[in-house]
Write a structure and sequence with these properties.
The chain is α+β, with helices and mostly antiparallel strands. It has helices at residues 26-29, 122-146, 176-191, 203-212, 271-292, 299-330, 345-357, 384-394, 415-426, and strands at residues 24-25, 35-49, 52-59, 61-62, 76-81, 87-92, 94-98, 101-106, 115-120, 150-154, 165-169, 196-201, 225-230, 234-237, 252-260, 263-270, 337-342, 361-368, 371-378, 399-401, 405-411. Helix content is 34%, strand content 31%. The radius of gyration is 32 Å and the shape is elongated.
Length: 428
C-alpha cells in the first residue's frame, strides 16, 4: 500500500475524527495510550475461510490505528470479563476503516454492550511511529535542502518481513554525495531531539498556512485539520501516529536509491529496524570476508579480483565450447539437414550455429528433467523463426526466434514429435 506523504491524513483525512461514528479515536491525540477501556457497539461477520470465522468489532472508543495513509494497522488484544469473573482475551488481527467506522478484526464473536479492555501491541506501534516520523523528517529535509518533493510514502510491514520503508521523489536522480549529506542532516535533527507535537487547526487557518508555504498540501475534507509539527522543521497535515520528539526516532539509515517510473525511490529504515539492518550487513560482510579469507578493508579489492578471474575463466570456457562445437559440426557426416542431441541448451545453440555456418540445417534436441528443448539453426536461407513457430503451433506450444536460429520448449514426450515436424518443414 502506498500513501500520500503530505496531507495524507491517515484515518480521518488529517482531521480529529469529527463527524465519524466512532466516539473517540484515541490514537489521534493520545498516541502513547496503549491500554484503554471501551464498549462494544457493533459486530458483523467479515468472512469464513477454511472453516474459520472472522468478525469485525466496533467500539465506542479505540486506540487501535486502522490501516491508512501508507501506515499499517495496529494489533493487540481485546479482553472482556464476564459477571462470573471469567476472562476472554481475543487477539486483534487487523484494524480497518469502512463507512467512517473503525473495525477490529477478530476470530471470536463479542456481544454489543460488552465492556472490554483494549491493549495495543507496544513494539509494533512504537516501530510504526518511528518509521512514520522518520519519513516526515527525511521528506522535510529533502524539500528544505534540495527542493525535492516527496510524492508518495510506503511504510514497510515488518511483520511481513519488509523491514525498509520507501518514499518516491519527484526528481530525476539523487547522487551519492546528496544521499550521504541528507542522511547526516536528518540524524543531526534526530540528535537534537526536536519536539514533535500534534494539534488541529480550522480549515481557514490551514489554508492560510498553505498560502504562506508552511503547509505544502491539504487533504480534501471539511472541518478541522490535524497538523503534526516538528519544531523548527515543518508542519504536516497528517492523521498517522508519531513519536513525541525526533530523538525517539532512534536514527535513520538510507538503504538504497533507485530509479523508478515517476522519479527516484529512496529506501530507508529507522530505530531498531536500522539496528537490525546494520547487524545483518555486518554479519554478511564478515561472512564474505571469511569465505574469501580477507579482512573487511580488503574485501572490495578481493571481490574485484575474483570477478576478474571469473570473467577470464568464462572467456576461456566459451572459447573451448566454440572449439568443441565447431569440431563436432564438421564430423556430423553428409546431408543438408543434421539431427543431433546435446547436453545443454547453451551448447545446443552454439552447435546449431556452427552447423549453420557450414551452410547446413541443424536440429539439436536437449532433454533436461521433464522438459525438452529443440534448437533449429540454418545457413541456407531457411527462416528458422517462422518454421519453429508453425511447428510448435501443431503441438499447442509457443516459441520462435530469429531467421537464423530459433528454439522451442516442450514436454519430454513431445521432443521427437517436434523434431519430426521441423524436419518435415525444412525438407530433411
Amino acid at each position: 500500500m502506498r500513501g500520500e506523504p503530505e496531507g495524507d491524513g491517515g484515518a480521518g483525512g488529517g482531521g480529529g475524527g469529527q463527524g465519524l461514528s466512532v466516539a473517540e479515536r484515541l490514537y489521534y491525540d493520545a498516541q502513547e495510550m496503549l491500554e484503554f477501556s471501551a464498549e462494544v457497539t457493533d459486530i458483523r461477520l467479515e468472512s469464513r475461510a477454511n472453516g474459520v470465522n472472522r468478525w469485525q468489532v466496533a467500539l465506542d472508543r479505540t486506540a487501535f490505528y486502522p490501516e491508512s495513509g501508507g501506515q499499517p494497522w495496529d494489533v493487540g488484544t481485546l479482553e472482556a470479563v464476564a459477571r462470573s469473573g471469567a476472562r476472554l482475551e481475543v487477539p486483534v488481527l487487523a484494524v480497518v476503516e469502512a463507512g467512517g467506522e473503525v473495525w477490529h478484526v477478530v476470530e471470536k464473536p463479542m456481544t454489543a454492550g460488552t465492556m472490554v479492555t483494549g491493549r495495543v501491541d507496544e513494539a509494533r506501534r512504537r516501530d510504526h511511529m518511528q518509521q512514520h516520523t522518520g519519513q516526515h523528517l527525511l521528506s522535510a529535509v529533502l524539500l528544505r535542502e534540495m527542493g525535492v518533493e516527496t510524492v508518495s510514502f510506503h511504510l514497510g510491514a515488518s511483520h511481513m518481513g519488509v523491514e525498509s520503508s520507501t518514499i518516491d521523489l519527484s526528481v530525476g536522480s539523487l547522487g551519492r554525495e546528496d544521499v550521504v549529506r541528507m542522511e547526516m542532516v536528518v540524524n543531526g535533527l534526530i540528535g537534537e531531539d526536536r519536539r514533535v507535537s500534534v494539534g488541529t487547526v480550522e480549515r481557514g487557518e490551514a489554508e492560510a498556512m498553505l498560502a504562506r508555504g508552511d503547509l505544502r498540501k491539504l487533504p480534501e475534507r471539511v472541518g478541522a485539520i490535524r497538523v503534526v509539527e516538528i519544531d523548527g522543521v515543518e508542519w504536516n497535515a497528517c492523521g498517522g501516529t508519531h513519536v513525541g520528539s525526533t530523538g525517539r526516532i532512534g536514527g535513520l539509515v538510507i538503504r538504497r536509491v533507485e530509479k523508478v517510473k515517476q522519479g527516484v525511490r529512496v529506501e530507508f529504515c529507522c530505530g531498531l529496524r536500522a539496528v537490525r539492518a546494520a547487524r545483518r550487513d555486518y554479519e554478511t560482510v564478515g561472512e564474505l570476508g571469511r569465505v574469501l579469507s580477507t579482512g573487511v578493508g580488503e574485501l572490495v579489492g578481493k571481490v574485484g579480483g575474483v570477478l576478474e578471474d571469473a570473467r577470464a575463466a568464462e572467456k576461456v570456457r566459451r572459447g573451448l565450447l566454440e572449439e568443441m562445437a565447431g569440431f563436432e559440426a564438421r564430423t556430423l557426416g553428409d546431408g543438408r539437414v543434421v539431427v543431433v542431441a546435446a547436453r545443454s541448451v547453451e551448447y545446443a545453440k552454439v552447435l546449431g550455429g556452427k552447423i549453420a555456418g557450414l551452410g547446413r540445417v541443424g536440429i539439436v534436441r536437449v532433454v533436461e528433467g521433464e522438459r525438452g528443448t529443440v534448437v533449429l539453426a540454418a545457413g541456407d536461407g531457411t527462416d528458422c523463426g517462422a518454421v519453429m513457430k508453425v511447428a510448435l503451433e501443431v503441438l499447442g506450444a509457443r516459441g520462435g526466434g530469429s531467421a537464423g536460429l530459433a528454439q522451442g520448449g516442450v514436454a519430454v514426450e513431445d521432443v521427437e514429435r517436434l523434431v519430426g515436424e521441423l524436419r518435415g518443414r525444412v525438407g530433411g
